[in-house]
Amino acid sequence: TIGRDAGCDIHLPDLAVELHHAQISADGQRVVVESTSGLDFQVDGRSSRKAELSAGKGAELRFGGHRLTLGGDGSNVLITVERVEALSDSSESKEEVGLFTLRDVMPGRRAMAWSFIAAVLALFMVWPIYTYATSHGVKERPVGYHGDQAWMSGPLSDAHKSLENNCQACHTQKFVAVTDQSCLTCHKADAHDHADPAKLAMAREAPGFGGKVKGLFKAAFHKPEGRCVDCHTEHEGAGPMMATAQAFCTDCHATLDKRVTGTKLANAADFGTDHPQFQPLVTAGWQGDQRLVKRAVLQGNLHEDNGMKFTHAQHLSATNAVGRMTQTMSAEQGWGNRLECKDCHTPTADGTRFKPVSMEDNCQMCHSLAFDNIGGTLRTLRHGEPGMVVADLRAFYRSTGPVRPISLSGMARRRPGNYAMAETAQDYVLGARAWPGQADEAIRAVFSKGGACFDCHVVLPVPSKGAPVTIQKVVQPDRYMKGGWFDHDAHKSETCISCHSADKSNLATDLLLPDLASCRTCHVGGTGDHLKPVKTPVVSTCAMCHDYHIDGQAPWMTKMQVGKGKGSARFPAVAAKR
User: What's the CA gap between 341 and 509, in Å, rounded?
Assistant: First the structure.
């Protein structure tokens, strides 16, 4: 190869020669010279781009100011390179350094250096200071570029975009960092201390030498520890504000027990590797009408006293009487081969949680409380009002006499399961037994084993004659994890039973919540350093489920960011580091 590039086999330091000008190949004494740059070279005084030569005969090649003489001794091809008299200044090696210099028309280096320093000071110090000084006190700057914008590290986030022409809304004093008071001017209602300030100070790790030096610099520039902007960083670019790094939480919580003595909180360093088991708030019992609650560790067969007696497994079966009824009514109700969770549990409008299951909307199509038919209109016992149930039954017997049985002749749907053999509506309402014919006995049957109320609800206890009927309240909490946040809409790609083992639950009191291990099948923590492979790796920092500002034990983000798609958009799922 021939060219000006130092890597060429024949290096010709000449500006008249291209970096890779041509190449020479030989086959015995036959030599082929071909241009690879598209430019000519001379062969025996004639311009050419390709030439076939004989080493035995010899030839002269010219590339710029260099001459290559071709020859041979019968077995080898010899090429001699020599520099000839330059035809122009461009071919002189001394001109390669100074040919394009501006040295003769530009000021000296010292003058240029001082000029650039003056220009930088004027553009990035004098002008910004002047702009700030002349606009101080102006509520809204005119649209356009202002000198102090040179100090901005980036545009404002979407949350503060409306303040882009009102810098003084946050920067109230010149050369003083943004203070918490500036933030609280707008955020006073939704910003709260994470914990007692004294405990927060105690939880922070004592700074070392480097930390102390850093603290001195912060104090000098009016930047105390624990400011809002330590977490909520601005001018990082348009779009959502950057999420807080997990280290902000784990600096305290990874070894919390060693810094805050007497704390009831367990250490948490990373969800994927070091996180305590969930502790849902469950119903522990009742004291009259007062519900007693407690935090329970989610392990083993955890139960809660929710006031119900039905079973999920019975309702989700495809082979029992419920399943057969579902198959019979599939065309009418749009059901499948069996009942699904969605047939009873309806999500809220934002998809985050589920509405409470109600008798009227979810149960009564199968569990009818009809007991009389008057002119084609069905009379039903009043669900949720045991006193009115008693009153309606007594009124029924006063109007009909003690010998008339309750019968709808099949107009009410019979309940599946153990009551599938009932012949009439009163068998369903009162239980499959001989009709007692008396109001008191009918009332006792409704609230006793085999009766419509007793087999789904907790009756406290079966009342004596004339005593009021008491039924335990039904508890359907919309949230069990009061200190954390969960969004069902973000998990809609999963099936319900992949997290809630409802198809295996034979007790209504079973607490069907996924435990820590279940969540870790996808969520690998903030770093993604997970020992076991998971099916869908999702990097999960502390802020995905917890919020720093706690408001009545509810995460702050429930107010600000819950909505269709917003809960999951804040923390997009990304592939974990494997």
Answer: 17
